[in-house]
Design goal:
This protein is mainly beta and 124 residues long. It is 0% helix and 49% strand. A hairpin with a 6-residue loop joins strand 5 and strand 6. The radius of gyration is 13 Å and the shape is globular. The N and C termini lie far apart (36 Å).
Length: 124
């Protein structure tokens, strides 16, 4: 699976952005999809994940209620709608794909395929 993330940019605090991640290949619907981020000087962290059919979603506590993950298997695309953005949301955002497994969807080690990342900068 090859992943291409887009939609990052500069936004003021309180604003919104929608990230998209287009996947190649015909097996997209077999993968769990996640968004993860890495802020300057910090380790990569889990943000949100969605099950193969969209029936289950998971969020980091820091984004719960503000971010929404969704997917369109017909378009091989996963989205991250980000509202009420804060300066601490500034990071490079990566989409990633994980084969279905017993690992929790919040586990970074479960994601085998990664996109190139898109930078989100939130100004105060």
């Amino acid at each position: 699976v090859q992943l291409q993330a887009s939609g990052g940019g500069l936004v003021q605090a309180g604003g919104s952005l929608r990230l998209s991640c287009a996947a190649s290949g015909r097996t997209f619907s077999r993968y769990r999809m996640g968004w993860l981020r890495q802020a300057p000087g910090k380790e990569r962290e889990f943000v949100a994940a969605i099950s193969w059919n969209g029936g289950d979603t998971y969020y980091a506590d820091s984004v719960k209620g503000r971010f929404t993950i969704s997917r369109d298997n017909a378009k091989n695309t996963v989205y991250l709608q980000m509202n009420s953005l804060k300066p601490e949301d500034t990071a490079v955002y990566y989409c990633a794909a994980a084969p279905i497994s017993t690992l929790p969807m919040t586990a970074l080690r479960g994601y085998n395929y990664w996109g190139q990342g898109t930078l989100v900068t939130v100004s105060s």
